[in-house]
Amino acid sequence: MDKARVLSLFVAVARAKSFSQAAVDAGLTPQAVSKAVRQLEVHLGVRLFHRTTRSLSLTEEGARLFELANPGLRLLDEALDQIQNSRLEVDGLIRLVAPMSIGTTIIIPLLPEFQRRYPGVQFDVQLDDHFTDLVENKIDVGFRAGNPPERNLVSRKLGEIVLVPCATPGYLALHGRPQTVEDLPRHRCTGFRHPSTGRLMQWELQVDGATIYQEMPAVASFNTVEGELTAVRSGLGIGQLPVFMVEAELAGGALVPLLPHTATSNSGVFMYYQQRTLMPLRVRHFIDFMAERVPPRLAAQWAVLKAA
């Protein structure tokens, strides 16, 4: 016996003082409601209603059960209504996860604009270069560079990361400027190690209309893009860096793009989340906002590179 179900039907009958009306309210037949109440009576070993062809009233035991159960079921109904209505509320917490580079450079700078639209929203932001399980970590929306997630999640591609070799004017004054792809291995180059595998990533270069992958000896390697960028800014060597992270340096001349015709954009930026059917409205608005604002930001990388 489903105790919660039969108890709620008993309370419905007691409130309506009618099996027929309680059945209509519950979307059941009067026979089904009567059977459920009878099951409860058998389970308790007492009669809960006085039944006649013209009237229905609670017995002493039925009145006592109604007095005890009715407030609890009202609270349960209110709790369910509040949770259901919360899906329609914009106020509340949104939990995000993103790689450090994308989070600090693209996602976080957009949060003030979203909060101006929806002042009642708060954010809990996790910056992590590893893939994060949304369910296990109670995350609403994730961002990822590379390939889309494969774990039964909805993913939306927001754009691509443009990679270009860069160095400081000071480095180039000391070591010269590479003129061809073949010159790069003879220079002091930095490297990026995949945060999950520790593998030194090959450089992606566009040559004669095709992408080539080249092993590049590294004078220093890093497991974060931020670390590699700091090294290149310091004049340590040439690094292949995301344009969206060095826009200010390229525009101001602090970094010089090298062999810009070799720039590639094979790595995507993805937003991922669970199915939207039971999603709170604030999360739905946030997803739509990011889908609107991030793609132009990423697309602008080519214009930045061309102007540098």
UniProtKB/TrEMBL annotation:
Protein family per UniProt: Belongs to the LysR transcriptional regulatory family.
Origin superkingdom: Bacteria
Record keywords, A-Z: DNA-binding, Transcription, Transcription regulation
Protein name: LysR family transcriptional regulator
Annotated HTH lysR-type domain residues: 1-59
GO molecular function: DNA binding; DNA-binding transcription factor activity
Segments forming a coiled coil: none
Species of origin: Duganella vulcania
DNA-binding keyword on record: yes
InterPro entries: LysR-type_TF_proteobact-type, LysR_HTH_N, LysR_subst-bd, WH-like_DNA-bd_sf, WH_DNA-bd_sf
